[in-house]
Amino acid sequence: MNPARTKPPITGRTLVAGVAGHPVRHSLSPLIHNAWLEAAGLDGVYVAFAPDADRFAVFVEAFRGGAIRGLNVTVPFKEAALACADVVSPRAEMAAAANLLTFESDGTIAADNTDGIGLLGAFEAQAPGFDPKAGPIAVLGAGGAARGAVAALIAAGAPQVRIVNRTLAKAEAVAGAIGRGVVACPLHAAASAFDGVSAVINATSAGLAGEGMLDAPLEAAPGTAVVMDMVYKPLETPFLAKARALGRRTVDGLEMLVRQAVPSFEAFYGVAPPTAQVDVRALALKALGQ
Ligand code: NDP
Predict the structure, then answer these.
(1) Residue nearest to atom 37 of ligand 1 (CA)
(2) For 247-274, b where at least 16 C-beta lie within 10 A, e where not — what string?
(3) What is the per-residue pLDDT across 235-282, written as a single tens digit (0 to 9) for each?
(4) What is the pLDDT of residues 170-224, one digit of tens each?
(5) How many A from CA of 231 to the centre of ligand 1?
(6) Smallest CA separation from ligand 1 atom 17, residue
(7) Please, which residues bridge with residue 167 across strands?
(8) What's the pTM?
(9) Ligand 1 center to residue 211 CA distance, Å?
(10) Which of 29, 172, 204 should be mutated for ligand 1, with most atoms under 8 A from CB?
């Protein structure tokens, strides 16, 4: 980043967007979007909101008509965001969750989900040559993040996705909702679910600083399998450390976070972010203390 550059002033035309979550103070999205805004010299600002957990719909309604351009949505509001929208993109519908709301001037609220773009973009960046069509993929977890990942992988042509979850009923519900090509497996049978896969993706919250650990039998996956963890705090989770120790190629959750922000920025400010001009991954790593 050019250290001499100063943030453009807020004006009467400043475009406002933000992120809503609860809690939200840990979110790296303001850092990412504001760094891009500054590097592009755009008259825009990106802020964080922490609406009351039970008043999300009221909070969103207040923006109808375009008081702000849009919102990224994070835990625990992704499902509620979908329910607030008038128009839902097919990928948000398939994921049953939205991480992006835009407020049109005619009063329409549109929902989208860019997590799948982030996931596939992270593979492209850190595991070049990986092809989702090449073989079955195992996804650990059956929450919102897992469902979005499964939907994106099926849409990208994965021949089979195996959802491996501690609570089998939740994996079965996601498999049933997405349909063809998706099977559910209990966590204790992870070793057989990893047999012959081209990738293993951790979409559980295990490994997140302060959360429990996930002892996945990664040695049961082929040596060519790419291992990805959506958790990025710490950047090298015990899951990724184990994969590396086994010699597997790895993809981290921070790359997914940065890549899902690209289409959001385009939706808010109408132009592509200046990804070549500012290294937001480096800024995020610094903020994470890595
Ligand atoms: P949810 O709370 O909806 O789901 C959590 C999942 O993790 C459930 O399937 C749960 O299993 C499982 N789980 C939790 N703890 C354990 C454990 N100790 N052992 C085994 N399984 C466990 O969370 P989300 O789906 O919203 O998010 C999951 C993770 O993905 C979070 O860490 C989130 O930060 C991350 N994420 C990262 C993104 C990125 O851009 N990098 C984007 C979106 C999410 P069960 O059903 O049995 O309870």
Answers:
(1) 230
(2) ebbbbbbbbbbbbbbbbbbebbbeeebb
(3) 999 999 999 999 999 999 999 999 999 999 999 999 999 999 999 999
(4) 999 999 999 889 999 999 999 999 999 999 999 998 876 667 778 899 999 999 9
(5) 8
(6) 206
(7) none
(8) 0.95
(9) 10
(10) 204
CATH assignment of 116-254? Answer: 3.40.50.720
Residue having the nearest C-alpha atom to atom 12 of ligand 1: 204
Q: Bridge partners of 36?
A: none
Q: Phi and psi dihedrals of 24, rounded to 5? A: -130, -10
The domain segmentation of the chain, as residue ranges, is 15-114+260-287, 116-254
User: Is 170 in the active site?
Assistant: no
Q: Which residues' Cβ are closer than 6 Å to ligand 1?
A: 75, 115, 118, 141-146, 165-167, 170, 203-206, 208, 211-212, 214, 230-232, 253, 256-257, 260
Instruction: Give CA–CA dist 86/71, Å, rounded.
Output: 15
Distance CA 189, CA 171 (A): 13
**pLDDT band at 50; cut points 50, 70, 90:** very high
Q: Tell me, what's the pLDDT at 94? A: 92
The CATH superfamily assigned to 15-114+260-287 is Leucine Dehydrogenase, chain A, domain 1 (3.40.50.10860)
